[in-house]
Specification:
The protein is of the alpha+beta class. It contains 14 helices and 17 strands. Among the domains are: 245 residues, Amidase signature (AS) enzymes (Alpha-Beta Complex); 71 residues, no CATH class. Helix 4 links the parallel strand 2 and strand 3. The chain is globular and about 70 Å long.
């Protein structure tokens, strides 16, 4: 029975029906991690003994006719930004090198409560604050399509592990493209959920024990097929704590019943963040596939927002979320720089400093600006079911760990662009708290994956996932990197 690159939920069904044993599946992934992970450094903490013991318990439960849930006996890995009891959980922070949380993050617990076995943790950047997965504890994660390239971040270890077949399911988080960019770089699927529908507790940052939910950041699944995203969302979404005693979440069904009813807007390129021609080509191929299927496709429809102004608003709100975790001297230096600057100067890195130094009154004003942006998106989605746009302006690029992010450069159509442009297409949709499914779109001419964002209205998660299913079936499904599709050595 095939295990490699199977749906996690299909593996659980096979375990439940006796076609596979949980121990067999866990052993398969442990062997694969041992053999393939050294070249990738995607999985950074393992609990083989604990995983095998829980697999034995899962098999004994099957023998008794007991069923733990839709992930019964299936091993999964978890992004190292989530506290996981019994496993070192660092968030990429050297100060947490040996940290063993006493509790498990609610989203991780929902996988466990569905029967999943946590096999290990996957690599992240320091405090999930970069779009490359590397830190002082574990080093850098390589891209399985080209180990000289980054796997992205902050869920870079998660996406690389999926692409390499080291795990069948993952859990990520996203405040700046941290699910979507790694999916795009590694050729896998991911879903950035509508803000607020999956509990964020136990995430590093802000850290274990923090009870408040941060602004902007969301939790969502990554996988190698859309079905796994859909079914994982069913497990993950819903209220936590006291709210769970009364509130229920019922996401609406897809906004179209047939592809002939599907209305697609495509925002393929823009001067606010120029897109490399190879990425642009893949976005246009996705648009062509949907049009051939019978959807109405418009390459010029846009929400009534200024993308540059959105970036200014989003960056300040995002940096305000990160500010409490920054050293006091960093926040003080930011405040001094902002006080001395022209109030109209919104260039990077001063723009990021504005967010770090944001006072409460200005934060409220920026929130109101965002609400007006959200209203413009809501009006846009009265006429369109989804928007297709790039995840990032480039495909996976060579590792660049220059300490000052402002000194890094991306090569776009043969010329340099700021590294921080990686945030622009991600922030365009994230700032409005919208659901986005990242789907494989194609390959560049030099063989690197390209993905696109499928965006829908707030709480329209099932619509973006339904369009992702169409693209998976009629445009491009998951394809393993060269050399990784061999089931066993």
């Amino acid at each position: 029975m095939k295990i490699l690159y199977r749906s996690a939920f299909a593996l659980a069904a096979d375990i439940r029906e006796g076609r596979l044993s949980s121990r067999e599946v866990v052993a398969f992934f442990l062997e694969r991690i041992e053999r393939l992970n050294p070249a990738l450094n995607a999985v950074v903490a393992l609990d083989p003994e604990g995983a095998l013991a829980r697999a034995e318990a899962a098999d004994q439960a099957v023998a008794r006719g007991e069923f733990w849930g839709p992930l019964h006996g299936v091993p999964v890995t978890i992004k190292d930004a989530f506290c996981t009891r019994g496993l070192v959980s660092t968030g990429g922070d050297p100060r947490r090198r040996d940290a063993m949380p006493e509790v498990t993050a609610p989203a991780v617990q929902r996988y466990i409560d569905a029967g999943a076995i946590v096999l290990g943790k996957t690599n992240v950047p320091f405090m999930s604050a970069d779009l490359q997965a590397y830190n002082e504890i574990y080093g850098a994660t390589n891209n399985p399509w080209n180990t000289g390239r980054t796997s992205g971040g902050s869920s870079g270890g998660a996406a690389a592990a999926l692409a390499a077949g080291l795990t069948p399911l993952e859990l990520g988080s996203d405040i700046g493209g941290s699910i979507r960019t790694p999916c795009h770089f590694n050729g896998v699927f991911g879903h950035k959920t509508s803000y607020g529908i999956v509990p964020h507790g136990g995430h590093i940052p802000p850290g274990e024990g923090v009870l408040s939910e941060p602004d902007l950041s969301v939790v969502g699944p990554l996988g190698t097929c859309v079905e796994d995203l859909e079914r994982a969302l069913d497990l993950l979404a819903g209220p936590e704590g006291d709210a769970a005693s009364a509130w229920r979440l019922q996401l609406p069904p897809p906004s179209f019943r047939d592809v002939s009813q599907l209305r697609v807007a495509v925002w393929a390129d823009d001067g606010f963040c120029p897109v490399d021609r190879e990425v642009l080509r893949c976005v246009e191929l996705v648009a062509g596939s949907l049009q051939q299927l019978g959807a109405t496709v418009d390459m010029d429809a846009r929400p009534a927002i200024d993308p540059e102004a959105n970036h200014h608003n989003y960056t300040q709100l995002m940096m305000a979320v990160m500010a409490p975790g920054m050293p006091a001297k960093v926040r003080e230096a930011a405040a001094e720089a902002v006080a001395a600057a022209d109030p109209e100067d919104m260039r990077e890195p001063l723009l990021q400093m504005r967010g770090l130094a944001l006072g409460h009154g200005e934060w409220l004003r920026q929130r109101e600006i965002r609400e007006r942006t959200r209203a413009a998106w809501a009006r846009f989605f009265e006429d369109w079911d989804v928007l297709i746009c790039p995840c990032a302006p480039v495909a996976a690029f060579p590792h660049d760990h220059t300490p000052d992010l402002q000194q890094r450069r991306l090569q776009v159509n043969g010329g340099p662009q700021p590294y921080t442009n990686l945030l622009r297409w991600a922030g365009l949709t994230l700032n409005a708290l919208l659901p986005v499914t990242a789907v494989p779109a194609g390959l560049t001419l030099d063989g690197l994956p390209v993905g696109v964002q499928v965006v829908s209205r707030y709480l329209g998660d099932r619509t973006s996932l339904a369009v992702a299913r169409l693209l998976e079936g009629h445009h491009r499904a998951f394809v393993a990197p060269p050399g990784y599709a061999i089931e066993r050595s």
